[in-house]
Structure formats: C-alpha cells, structure tokens
Amino acid sequence: EAEVAQSPRYKITEKSQAVAFWCDPISGHATLYWYRQILGQGPELLVQFQDESVVDDSQLPKDRFSAERLKGVDSTLKIQPAELGDSAMYLCASSFEQGSNYGYTFGSGTRLTVV
Amino acid sequence: AQSVAQPEDQVNVAEGNPLTVKCTYSVSGNPYLFWYVQYPNRGLQFLLKYITGDNLVKGSYGFEAEFNKSQTSFHLKKPSALVSDSALYFCAVRDTSGGSYIPTFGRGTSLIVHP
Q1: E-only strand ranges, B1-115
Q2: CA distance, residue B86 to nearest chain A CA (Å)
Q3: CB A108 to CB B43 under 8 A?
Q4: pLDDT tens-digit series, residues A36-84
Q5: For residues B26 and A6, what is the distance between their CA atoms, to the nearest angstrom?
C-alpha cells in the first residue's frame, strides 16, 4: 500500500536553532498538506500545496516557518528559529486532488521537541 | 464556518462490548464527515467517510458510523471492541459551502479497551 514518507521521525533541537522536515507524498497526489498536532489536540493545517503552488498558508507563522514544494513532488517545512512552543507532531498528508472525498493519507509524522 | 466537537476526552470499554465514540458538527451547508484513527507516534489513518447516501457508513476494521442530520452527529461505533482498537480517534468535518476544501479536526477521543 502506498504511503506518505516523512523524515526524520523524531527531532530534538535547542530553541533558536533551525530545523527542517521532509515529506514525500504518494506518487500522483497533486495536493500536499502540512499539519501541526499539539499534544492532546487535533491536527491543524499549516499549509496546503497544489502541485508546486501554495493554496493556503493563512495559518503558517511566516515569521519563522517556511514551506516549499519546488518540483511539485516532495516538500520541506522549515522552522527558524525554533521556539519552545513549536514542540509538536508535524504531519504531512496528501490527496489526489483538492477536496478529496476519500480523505487524506497521512505520513507517520515528525515529533519535534524543542529544548 | 465549520466546527466539530468530540465531547469525550476518553472512552473506556471492555473487550467484546459495543463501543461508541461521539462526534457532533456544525456547518453552513452540507457536511462531509470523516473518522481517523491514530496509534501512538503514528500519523492518522482514514477509517471511513460520509459524503452522501446511506446514513450508516461502514469502514475499516469493523467500524461504522451513523450520520444523523437532525442531531448533527456522526458517532463512530463498533459492535464488539478489541484491545487492539485502543487508540486516538479523530472526527473531521468539511463544509460543502464556503469554498474551503480543508476539513476541521476535533480534539480527539482516547479509546481504551480493557481485556
């Protein structure tokens, strides 16, 4: 079964340092999402890509977060500088198209701990 | 605006007994509704969805959910719980009016099945 690949699985970083996460969606999925899940809460959308274009980044803290999907395939989410409050699970998901009625396929996530 | 509520932080049930995980929603138009399951340190896995049609939706692992428009609910059910069903369960809703393709996730309900 096709999967969304994410790396690393776990990341510990000191505050004020830079950190980056990588996601490779299911082949052929044009839409890619980055979600943040704080412990005890549901996932919240950070950014949505359609191919290489950003569709929605209204919830992305742009002073420190950036995301790119240069060739419309894999994607990188960066935080610089990291803050203690950024500790969370960062989930990548993909779907064949926007508004997919079949739900998203999520990766296993990257658990970030900022110390 | 769309929102979803999972009124129970935790549900406890004995193995072999039926289980229900509750979800209520609020949308302006018609809802698309989803259930996802999350195991420790993993991403979310799609269980089932309601788009249109039969109010009783059957999904993976023997789970089903009933759409009730009058009560704006979409409760997740299983006739006989297994210990391996213990996990976090998330309900999500997408409003078909308003143009957003992004579902809103609930806070999650921890299901604990006791042997």
Answers
A1: 3-5, 10-14, 19-21, 24-26, 31-38, 44-50, 56-58, 64-68, 73-78, 87-95, 104-105, 109-114
A2: 16
A3: yes
A4: 999 888 899 999 999 999 998 989 999 999 999 988 899 999 999 999 9
A5: 32
